[in-house]
Structure formats: C-alpha cells, structure tokens
Predict the 3D structure of the following.
Amino acid sequence: MAKQPAAVIGVGQTHHRAKRDDVSMAGLCREAMDRALEDAGLTLDEIDAIVVGKAPDLFEGVMMPELYLAEALGAVGKPLLRVHTAGSVGGSTAIVASSLVQAGVHKKVLTVAYEKQSESNAMWALSIPIPFNMPVHAGAGGYFAPHVRSYIRRSGAPEHIGAIVAAKDRNNALKNPYAHLHNEGTTVESVMASTMLWDPIRYDETCPSSDGACALVIASEDVAASSPNPAWIHGTVMRSEATTAAERDQVNPQASRDAAAALWKQAGITSPVDEIDAAEIYVPFSWFEPMWLESLGFAAPGEGWKLTESGATALGGKIPVNCSGGVLSSNPIGASGMLRFGEAALQVRGLAGEHQVDGARKALGHAYGGGSQFFAMWVVGSDKPS
Amino acid sequence: MRDVAVVGFAQTQLEDFDGSPTCVELLVPLLAECYEQTGWTRKDIGFWCSGSSDYLAGRSFSFVQAVDAIGVIPPVNESHVEMDLAWAMYEAWIKIQTGEVDTALVYAFGKSSAGVLRRSLSMQLEPYTMTPLWPDTVSLAGLQARAGIDAGQWDEAAMAAVVNRSLTDAEKNEHAVRKGGSSVEELLARPMYADPLRKHDCAPVTDGVAAIVLAAGDRARDVRDRPAWISGLAHSVDAMSMGTRDLTRSPSTARAGAGAGVEGVEIAELHAPFSHQELIVTRELGLGSDVVINPSGGPLSGNPMFSGGGIRIGEAARRIWSGEASRTLGHATSGPALQQNLVCVLDAEQKEA
Amino acid sequence: MARTLSAPVTVAFDYTRSTGPVLGRFLTGLRDGVLVGARTSSGTVVVPPPEYDPVTHQQTTDFVEVSPVGTVTSWTWVPEPVADQPFDRPFAFALVTLDGADAPMLHAVDVASPDEISTGMRVQVRWAEERVGHITDIACFEPVHDESAASPSGGGLMEDNLVTEVVTPVRLDYVYAASPEESAFYRGLKEGRILGQRCPTCQKVYVPPRSACPADGTPTEGEIELSHTGTITTFCIVNVPFLGQKITPPYVSAYVLLDGADIALLHLILDVPADEVRMGMRVKAVWKPEEEWEHTMENISHFSPTGEPDADYETYRQHL
C-alpha cells in the first residue's frame, strides 16, 4: 500500500531570541501557529489534529506541557500527540504529523515544536549529575567536541573549515528576519579569533540558546490542491541507534548513513548533490556541516570539507546549506529540527524571501539528536511525487 | 484502512523496582517475551515506538538508553512519545497505515517509585497558577470525586463496589500488585484518607514496563489464529483547567469512544486510576451492565505509569486471543482528572475490506 | 547486600517564567490585592483568566475584577501534605467560585479538619504578608464567618508596573538506582578494580557492563578485570565554565580505551599541559588514596600519561 500524498501548505515561525520575555509558552507557540495557519489560509477550527514536539521537559520545568497547553493551542476536542526524540524532535514531530495525513486518517494536521530555553538553563538541565558517575562532560559542546576532533583527524581537514561554515551561516542569518543572531561582519578571521570553548570548538562555532517555535500545516492531496504553492513530501525517514556502543562510528553514524540511503531511495534521488537544490541540515556546531555532507552522501567520506571550502554550500553555490542561517543562528532546541524541515518547505515554495535559492524545486530538511543517534529527515519538492 | 491487529503483549508490574530508571533490565526479558509470542526476532519489527517521561526518571533524555534493550545494530526505524504506551501504539498504528511498515513493537517504562509520584505529577499542571501550589494527583482526583458525589452522580458505596470488584478480579492476575476483595461494607468501614477518597480508591504506585506488538494483514494471521483486530482507535483531549471543566464528565472519553465505535463490546478494560473515574468512563462510553469491566483487576490493582494505559489494550487483546470474547475495548487516560483519553476497540472478526 | 546501589538525587531549579499579557495581568492583580478574571466569548467570567478564548481561540482581552470572597464548589482533604504545598500540616484543597465569577479556581483552604469544610461554604482570600505577583500571594482561603466583615474588594492595578515574569522554584527528590551490572562495576571500583563484562552475542567487552549490549540487546556477562592503562582515542579541552561544574577549567576530558576493552571510558587527563594531550597518548589511571574509595568513578582521580610511545592510529581508529 502506498502512502497518501501530503504537502506542507503553511509554515510559521517566531522571531527567535535569547529571551522572549514578552510571551508565555502558549504565546510563543501561537505566534508560530498563527503564522502557519495564515500561510495555509486555514483557521484553527479547521484543523483535524495537533502534534506537539519539544525536547526535554526539564528545560521549561513542565511535565508533558502539551496537556496544559491544549486549550491555548486549540487542541481541545481533537487528537493531540506529543513527540520527544531529543534534538531530532522537531523533525520527528513533522514526520509524525505527516504520517497522520499519509495514513489517510486526517486531512489537515497542524504541528508545532518549541523551546523556551530562557525559562531555565540548558547546561543545567543536561548536566544533572548521575550518582556514582564522574561528571566530566560540559553540556552539548563538551559532548560533541571530541567527535569533531576525530573528524578532523580522519579527514585531514584544515583548521579553518569550521570557521567558514560559521561565517557563512551567520551571514545567511542576516537575510532571515526571524533568526536569533544577526551578527554583522562575521568573517572567517573573526570566527577564528573568537574564544576557544571546547577545543576544537570556538565560541563563534557554537549555536546560541534561543526561545522560539515553528509550526507547519500539513495537508492531504485534495486540500493541498487549493494551495498556490504546496511543498510536496517526497520522502521521510527516522533512524535510531545507541548513544554508546563498542566501535560505534560517532563521526559518521550508521543510523545517519542508513537514514540517508533510505531517504534518497524513497525520493527517487540518485545523486543528492546534483538533485537537491537547497539543504537545511542540523548543524549546531560548525564542523557538523562537512560531517553531515559526507554522511548524507553529498560528498565522499573525507571530502565533505572540500565542498564547504569550495563555497558550494554558500547561497548561490552548487548545494546551498542552511540559507536560513541554520541552527548556528537560531536554536530553540525542540523547534530547531522543525525549522530545518519548514525552511526546506519554504525554499521549494519560493517563499524563503531574501535567503531564497533561485528556482529551488527539491530540498532536504534534516535533524539529529541525542549523541548523534537519532535522525529525522525529509525531502520536499515543488512537484507532486510521481 | 489496513487491517492491523494486536498480536503480542507483555507486561511487568512491580511495587518497587530496585533497578535503573531506564528500566533496560526489565525491557530485555519483556522484549524476549514478545519474540517468543510471535516467533519473531527484532529484525522482523518494522517500527518501534516507546513511551516514558523524563520527570518520572528525574533526568533529561531518560529514554535514550532504552533502545539498548532492542539491540540497535543495524539501526532501527524508531520514535518516542512523552506519553503512555497507548499513544505510542497509536503512532505505530498510523505508521502501519501509511504502508511504510507491516509490523511494530511499542513499549513503555516507568519507575514511579523513584520520586514521590503524586507530587511529581504536579509538574504536569499549568505552571503559572497551579504547579506552585503543588496540587498532588490524589487531591485533584478527590476534588473530582467530591464533585460527583455532590451532584448525585455516584456515592462512596458505588466507588467501593468498583474497588471490591477490581481487587477480587485481581486475585486471578499474576501481575497485580494489589489484590484481595472483601465487601463494599468492609471497604467503607476502612478509614477515610484524602476525604472523599480512601486509600483503596487510588491506584497503587507501581513500577513497570509493558509492550504491545502490532501486525498488518497476513503478518498478523501468521502469528495468531485469533488476532485481535483493531476495528476502532481514537483519542481526544479536554482543557486542563479544573475550573472550566465539568469534572463529573469526560467529553474526550465520549469523543474517543464515538470515534472508535464501542457498540457490542463484551469486555472493557478501563484505565481509571481512581475508583470514581471508572464510573465516569463507563458512562461516557455508554457501556451497559452486560459489559464486563476490568476482569484483569484494572488499574486499582496495579498502574505502572506510562504503560498503565497500554496494558488495558493488551489485556483486552488477550481476551480475544483466548476466545473468551469476540469484541473488547481498551481505554487509556493521561493528565489530571481524565483530561486526555484513548479508546481502542478490538475484534476477533476482521472487518470487511 | 542490596541487589543494586542507590543514592539520592535532587533536581532543583528556580524557573523564570515570562507570563505573557494575560497571566501577567492576573498576577499583577494578586500583587496589588485584586482578583482579575476574564469574560470569555460565551460570557462566562473565569479566574484565573484563560490565555486564549476556548471558542474563538483569540487572546483574552476582556478583564473583569471579581470579589475575594466566594463559595466552595468542591473540596478534598490533604491528610499528608507533600513538600511545598501551601501548608505543611493537613489542610483542604478546594475549588472556589469567587463572587462575580462563573467558574471556580483552585487553592488551599485553611481548616483544621475535614469536618470544618463543606461544599457551599463561604470563604475569602487570606493574602500573604508580602505580595510579589505570584499565585502564592494568596496564602490560602479561609472560612467567612461574618459576611458583612468579609474582606473588601481591592481597587485598581498599578498599570505602569505590570508583572511580566514569575519565578517558580522546583525541587524534586529522587532515589537513583544503578542497574545490577553497573552496581557490580561500582562495587569493583570500591575495591580498586575496573570490571567489565562481555556480550555473549558479539563478544565485545563493555566497561561499564550493560544491562543490554546496545548492538544485540543481550545482557553482558561474566567478570573481566581490565587493565588500568589505556589509550586516548579522542578528547576535548574544556575552557568553558558552566552551572554545576565540579572541575575548574581548563581541563581535558578524554575517551580512554582501556587495554582489553572494546569501548572507551570518558575521564579527565591531568599531569600534562592541556595542549600536549594527543590522540593515541598512552595513559594510566591515578587512584585517590584507598581510604577515600567509594562506589564511584571518582575513585579514579584522573588519567595520567604513562610515557610510553603513542599508540598507532590504526589500533584505535575504529573507536572514533
């Protein structure tokens, strides 16, 4: 049995900031939802089901917050689901929402993902000591830095590659009015000159901590028919592996490679670098751009940094990556994956504004989470899949 | 829609589990039991989905290690909901409906005893004006029970009758952590606890894990002679506010029941962690006196958080497999005072395509 | 001996919540001694005001001041209060419909026994001595014995100083237990030993041992005493201070692959300048004095260079 066609017909996001102290959690979600509904030309009452995603509940100090939010989100009287797959959750949530349409169960599904990090402190929430253990990690940066070092060793990449990514994404963010960071004048040199935090990761190579939300309206074929610019879903995939395992490849995890292979197959793509017009890849630390380029099959193993160095991943390059500014410019953790998925949809709908890739017709949305162990990806296109 | 059946179900309920909050030690034998029931290995499973809560475990990302129990080389098609097993099963049922996979194994785990459960659950409330008062679960249920008593919807004797039947039936359930019925009179003679609730009106704090195996069409028939076909599956949510809800009713239960289609159900396993809530759910689903309620003993005999709802579906499926019934129902609830509800109707007969 | 090791863990944080305009108005009212509700599109007055209208889904804007006196519509006894509830002695939680409102709100009622409260009873707000714009500005409700003397309604809000943020301390106490496999590992550490186990399916040696081999789902078995010497596979130099940090930066956190193990441990590298630490460096465990040993990884103070030649990249590349 084939999946029912489904398309993104509405995308909304908040203005992401370090602290959105002008809104409550409900207000944050509604800001993104109301924009998505307006984009889709629908009202909340027309929505069949609501899917909420966010990362750990300890970030906001509310257990299963979708329950108290149900009324504010207009979910009362409807099916309400809550997804949590660590950092990949924004992507997984979009996929679960899509599946409600692809299963033929619902026609109009609204999904929203958010994080209001300013309500607490993510470093605290992620570093609560476990008895008997020795706390040597230092948040997400401390976790990922050794694996970045491994990548550099394996690929022989020059030291400034991470800085190229950071400078590119920060400059892309200047074209995105919703982005958290609008750091004018970021250059490879300025990134290289920034403080080394988790050696080999510098301050300017890390993502910010943001408050923000993203919402999508996903519709069935008949509903999408009345949309002027639907982003058709060509493929979705989720894969998981363990956080730690003997001889696990932590630079290029098997779950990532398997997910990419399954995704390209579903979407009928044989050469991603030639066929994908824009990619929104989850890059919370700059070096993950070349790492994921290899894992996703845009470049051969060990060659991803060359694609970055060549300028191919810049807006206007062969394979523009994170034209929105990416996670490096806005990181409301639970929403970050959905922002990647939503930005991919905006590209193929021609609605990405100043950071639009000319003529983009197929785009990748990507998210990962945990210790590089949970992966969620989709391909969206301007054309209905054949 | 594809015909999908419950073909496997395993559970462990404990009063006080002394192992890790990831419950991996409990999940390994649980999954083994699922493989034994189905004759499958992990490679036969197309999709996995789990349910659990970080606030039960007391740490962020408490679910990430649970996939170890599966054995994830090669990596798996997997998801996680911060919800009860019943909703994890819903996500898996949807996944099968898309045609992407034909089989799924869903599991859930929770170590309720790691913290003070009734207090931890205050974290589930509206965080600005409710949680700072730390209204515990028992108190919120007490407000609901009183509302029904005051409105003449039920009385303490009706609540005691639910308890007596549950604890009597639980004597036949090896998994139950609380069992032993007596009589309504004896139960009413016991001291009041959180007036109007006695301790036996409240589900016991229970640790545990549970798993459900789903399969579509021929894959289901390969496993069992009498698969429990899912003929209806629906869920809905109400507003949380204790002030604007009629606490004696549960509209989301009624909607889920209507969505699933409950006519002709012979046995209903209802997830009512407080005795009066069974009376509400029974009414909202329109179950008549001929319907056998909670023959397993129900949640008053054991209610492991995050699998307690799914266990009701598993228990309902068992009655189909055994030939004891041809149409059963499993209900799951989540949130304070029956806020969110799911109904799954199971049939021995496959629906006409 | 207990099957597993356990220890208390406290998860505590003072959350800072931005309230948004609707809840902000309600909390401002509490600070200023006024109860603020809202009229919904269906005409009912609800306290606290819902942020969004249940029917139109629009943000609530029609605010209404209601009386601090009201009627109990339901109640429950709290015989054994949990931490941080309004009272640390038995009390009642109640739903109270304030005069002027159509729906009740939840709060505590200060009565000494369940005999002193009933549905329909008249109660009034007892304000906290100090009010800051928090739900606990209402200390509780208390019975009204004389309606004519009941607390009067407040007055206006200080419009130029609205509450926009509320601090909510959350403190949860848990008992954390290690798995049986981990418990064996920590017990070994107390004896100065590093114990691993082997997966019977893939034969890999895990340290610490696992309740399930993540590759196969099989519990690891046996007891393998591992060398205290190993190789740094990869590492990071931590320069950043963070909340809850126990070690002063800069320090090196490294994956150490003990000889005989198939998975690396994460630990500290000391006794060498951070910028001289290398992938492939050979290191050995430096233990704290024996009298300080507990059931913890912290018995190993850190790892220190052995001075041996670095391990060949090929010997550890599959561990990256």
